[in-house]
Amino acid sequence: MSISSPPTVAEEPPEKAQQVANNEPEIVVFQPDDPEDPHQWSPRKKRGTVALTCAYAFCAVFGSAVYAPGEEKIRERFGVNADVSSTGLTMYVLGFGIAPLICPLSELSGRKLPYHLSWIFLVVSSACSAFIENIAVILLFRFFAGCAAACALNTGPGVIADLYAKDLHGMGLATTMFAFCALSGPCFATLVGFFIAAHTDYALWVLRVQLFFALAMWPLLFVFPETYGPVILEQRAKRLRKGGRENAWAAHELHHRTVSQLLREHVVRPFTMIIYEPIIQGAALWVTVTYGILYFFFEVYPIVFIEQHGIPFQLCGLMFLSVSLGMVISVVTFNYLVRMSEKVRIPLIERKGERLPMEETHLKVVIIACLCLPISLFWFAWTSGPETHWIAPALAGIPFGYANTAIFFSFTSYTSRTYSLYASSAAAANTFFRSVVASIFPIVAHSVVDALGTKWGVTVFAFISVAMIPIPFIFVRFGPALRARSRHAKEAREIITRMHRQEPDDRSSLEGKIESVAVVAVDSRDDKGQRAHTV
C-alpha cells in the first residue's frame, strides 16, 4: 500500500526552497512520527510484515527436510548407497550457507528485491530437482534450491530489525516467531514427507510437494513492503527530484563506491564478523551445534524408531511432533521467562546492585535452553535401544525442541540488537558457519551410528554441548563490553543516528532536539564532516 510522504522542506514553496544554495546537496532523512519510517508503522502493518517473513522462512526450510523420508526410494530408484542419498539433504543445507554471502547486498538494494529474485530461482530449481530423472542433476539443483531459499532465512532478521530496532520487546517476540517457523519447518516437513513417501510409488514426489508449496507462496511477495530505511529514503529522494528538487539525495546515494568496495563492505563483512566478532563466534557455535543435531536426527530417527522399535514407516514423522511441541513451549514461555530474567540475579555473574542492559538481561533466558540441550541428548541416547519403550526417546524431543528454538531465537535476537542495520550481515555470518558445518551432519550420521551405535553416537554430541555451556554466561557478564568494542555495532549505531537526526557542528543551536524536517542541506565541501544546517 502506498503511503504519502509527510510534509518536507523540499515540498515547501519555491521561495523558501531558494534559501538553499543550488550547488549544495540536500539530505533526505526521516521525520519524527514519519509514516514511511518502518519504526513508525502501525502495529497491524508490522505484524503482517513479520507474518509474511515467518511464512517464507517456514517454506524455505520445509524444502530441506521433506527430502529425507524419500531417501529409501531414491536409493532404490537410482541404485545409490545411503551416503549418496543423504547428500540431497546435505546439498540443500550447504546452499543455506553459501548464498547468504550475497544476501547482505539487501543493505544496498533493500529487503524486497532479494526476496523476489531468490523466489524465482527457488521455483526453477525445485522444478528441475522434482522432474529430472538423474541423481546428479537432482543433487545439483537441490544445492541451488538451498541457495535460493537461504534468502528468506538470512533477510528475515534484517526485516525484523528494520521494524523493531527501537522496541526490544517487539523484536524479541518477532524473533521468537521467526525462529519457531525456521526451526519447526523441517519437523512438519518430515511429518508430510513420510506420509507422501509411504503412499506414492514415485521417488520424487516428496520434492514435488516443495515445488507446489513454493509456487503457492510466490504471489504473496507482491504485497511484501520494503522495510530497509536507507532504500526508503532513496525512493523518497527520487520522488523529490522528479518533483523538481534536483538537489535532494539520500545519504548513501552520495557515496559513490566501486565494485570492489561493495564486495568488501557487503560480502567480505560476514567473514570479518566471524573472525573478529566474539559475539558472532559464540552465537554461531551454539546455533551450529543445535542446528546440526536437528539434521542429524532426520537420519537417526528412522534408525531408532523404524529399525529398532518397529514403528510403521508412515508414522515415523509423528515422532517429530514432540520436537515441535518443545518448540511451541519455547514460544509460549518466552515472554514469561524474559520478565523473570529481569528479576532474577545470577550469582557470581551479576554483581549485587548492578543492572544489566536489556540485551544481556533477555539473553539470560538462553541459559536454561543451553542446559536443556545436553539433558535431552543424554535422555534420547540412553533410551534409544529396543529394550526401552519407544515413547521414552520420543519424549526426549520435547526438551530438545525447546532448547533448539530458544537458543536460535535468543542468539538471533541478541545479534540483531547488537548490529541493527547490519543484522543481515550478522545473520549471513551466522548462517554461513551454521549451514556449512551442519551440512556435514546428515552425511556422517550413518557412519557415526554404524561405528558407535545410537547410544554413544548421540552421547558424543551431548558432551560437546556440555563443553559449550560457559558461553552464555560469558556473554551475560561481559556482553556490554564486547558490544562497546565492536566496530561493526558502533558503525551501525552511527548510521541510524545520521538517518534520524541532523548533525550540526554547533549542537547547542538546536538545544539538543531533533528538528522535524525531512531534508537538510549539507556543506558539499566536506563529504565526511557533512556540516548540516536547517534549510
From TrEMBL:
Q: Which keywords label this protein?
A: Membrane, Transmembrane, Transmembrane helix, Transport
Name the domain of life.
Eukaryota
- Primary site of residence: membrane
Q: What membrane topology term does the record carry? A: Multi-pass membrane protein
Region Disordered, as annotated, extends over 1-44
- UniProt xrefs under InterPro entries: MFS (IPR011701), MFS_trans_sf (IPR036259)
**What would be one Gene Ontology cellular-component term for the protein?**
plasma membrane
A Pfam family annotated for this UniProt entry: MFS_1
Q: Which residues cross the membrane?
A: 49-68, 88-105, 117-137, 143-165, 177-199, 211-233, 279-298, 318-338, 361-382, 388-409, 421-444, 456-478
Any idea where this protein resides? Membrane
> A single GO molecular function, which one?
transmembrane transporter activity
The identity of this protein, by name, is Major facilitator superfamily (MFS) profile domain-containing protein
Q: Which organism is it from?
A: Trametes cubensis
Its lineage reads:
Eukaryota, Fungi, Dikarya, Basidiomycota, Agaricomycotina
